Amino acid sequence: MAAVAVPSGGPGGPKPPAGCEVRAATPPKGFGLFACAACPAYTEMFTEEPLFAMQHSGNRRVVAACARCCGFVRSVPLQLEVLFGESRFAPLLAALGDLPTRWQESAGEGQAVVVRCKQGCGEIYCSEACRDLHFQHSHNLLCVGPLTEDHPLLRFKYHALEHADTLLLAAQVFAFLVNRARASGGGAQVMQELMQELLCFCHAPFREACRPPPGRSKDAEFYAHTDGLVHEAAALLRAALEPHAPAEVGALFASGPSFFAEVLGLFEYNNIDLEVHSPVGPLLINRAKALAAHISTPQAMTELKQLESLLREKEWVMRCVWGEETTGIFGDEADVAQDGADAEPMDSLMKAAEQGNDAEVASAAMAQATAEVAQMSLEQLLQGAWPAMHGTALFASVARMNHSCAPNMKVAFPGNSARLTATSVLNISPGDELCICYVNQEADVQTRRRRLLEYGFTCSCSRCLSEDSATLRKAQKRLK
Length: 480
Fold this sequence. Notes:
By secondary structure, this protein is mostly helical. About 50% of the residues lie in helices and about 10% in strands. The chain folds into 3 domains: about 120 residues, Beta-clip-like (Beta Complex); about 160 residues, no CATH class; about 150 residues, no CATH class. Strand 5 and strand 6 form a beta hairpin.
């Protein structure tokens, strides 16, 4: 296996949360996040807003989320319009009529609120406050609403959609830095200080930090492709931003695309997956219960049948569309083959069929999904999962947390936003390093180590060493 990059980081950066401190960890680790006080197991230690966050492009096909906070836009009609956006679902939406609006109001959600970008770019928000904050943060420089098709910003976004979502997140970082530099007096020197502040997190050039496609190594062709992708994106972004702030943008690109590549590499090591669960499913479960209580009335029976039809179509969508493209979670072929417990979510029936470039296979897969859904009871349909919001984000404190295969912390997104909650899972004493597990904690030691190589290290924690010994003993016993 080719050598992996050793990411670098340093002191400084955003202030840690209360009760925590950032300091040097035990070598070969760099810096880490440490507890300043005791904390019992299963206690919330801190909450945190992301520095930068973004919904995956593929996920936009099935979920209407706020462009700033990443929470579900509180509009049942809009969520259904997005999920059932294909023309084949037009009769379903027409038959529902104003039922989605009535469902929302009967649940105490009030009227649907959808706030859109004032400049017409298509971004949506859960509130005017989120829209205004997003504009001040970075959207003022990244909105494509008033632009022509040949503008470099539009070309940059098309390039990003074709190649990698994280290019869009890097653009958000650059726009934010420009806004912050100008608010602090402007100039190249101010920008250089802000750039160094960001590089306190582990980072390496993108070509070294990113993982190659399954089944291939980082050969010369891979490096050439990766460098070309980054160079083109950096050139387009510079052309888009420079007219707004020549001195500040000049500092960002003083070394060509180098800083842009470092930011992309920083994402590879520090970003975590966002997952915000849909509020639509629980809302419809409650509505079904209310209707069942009045099932003797023709109106309730009719509405319940319409709800059941909606749920069957939703279940079909989940089986045929939901997968890697809509979650942004791409599996590792070796993991799937070697350890089912560590397998990432399998892709949809539709995608699996399309990979064979066989329309008949795709049609058969969809027919199979239709047949399976037709056999489901209403109770089963009500319990079926709804599409979650999936995205990626950089959190200052979580980025400082090192890995452990036996972690003492876990992170989650319990509300309708990208706001993160960090909770202890073990008793923590003052001075303990706070660690999370970067990979699937249930996987075996070989799988965990293979996945952790993407972060630039080989894990030798006490759990890994113990499992190594157990594996060796089993092998020796078989040989006897």
